[in-house]
Amino acid sequence: MKKILVLLMSICMIVFLAGCGNDSSKTADSAKPSTSEKITVQAAASLKGALTELADTYKKDHHLADDQIAINFAGSGTLRQQIEQGAPASLFISADEKNMKMLQEKDLVTDVKPFVTNELVLVVPKGQPQISLDQITTVKRIVLGNPETVPAGNYGKQVLTKMGIWDQVEPNVVYAKDVKAVTASISQGAGDAGFIYKTDAIAAGDAVQIAAVTPADSHDPVIYPIGIIKKYDNALAKDFYQYVMSDEGKKVLEKYGFSTEK
Fold it and tell me: At which positions is molybdate bound (predicted)?
């Protein structure tokens, strides 16, 4: 009887150890990176907060190293030029449709879809007197992203042109490299008013205040398209593309003030 009892205990111990071994194996497998591939994302500067959070979450969930998803934030026109010159990027998210269409015409991108939308606002330094759009001719320093490379700057120029005052205010315009630089100039008091996106005004917190929301018919729709760059396409690029477009991705984008309704 004792021999049988010892035998049964031995069998139970073996089964238990085997089970522990399987659990350890599963844990080890789950901690493995889902891929060894790397990608670079070219993204409009206004997406910095939202896209950084999305990338960090994705890398954590898939056990990726920090350098497996790199993001280059800048003005959309600058990013588009870099892609045309062969920059090793897998995804492009532009703050306007114009720059994406230029890449489509050269057959450099695929799977282009609307990503998010935004609003253009006029901001002033926190604590400064509020002004309306109609009063912008009295502003001494109007900060604007370079309209040639920064969509927000182009939208701002469209607003001033629609109002019929561009030629009058152009001598007072100070150009910045991207919308983040515009926001910084206003928050630091280096400019008296500037055109930025609503999302950047939200991100700036108490540093700036919104003086006016530009009318929707005063400029082109602020639509951000996303596309995969053909030359550097891979499985990671496709999966991250799907992730940022997912319901989970939309929740993060909406948290930062973007609209995901297309």
Answer: 46, 76, 152, 179, 197
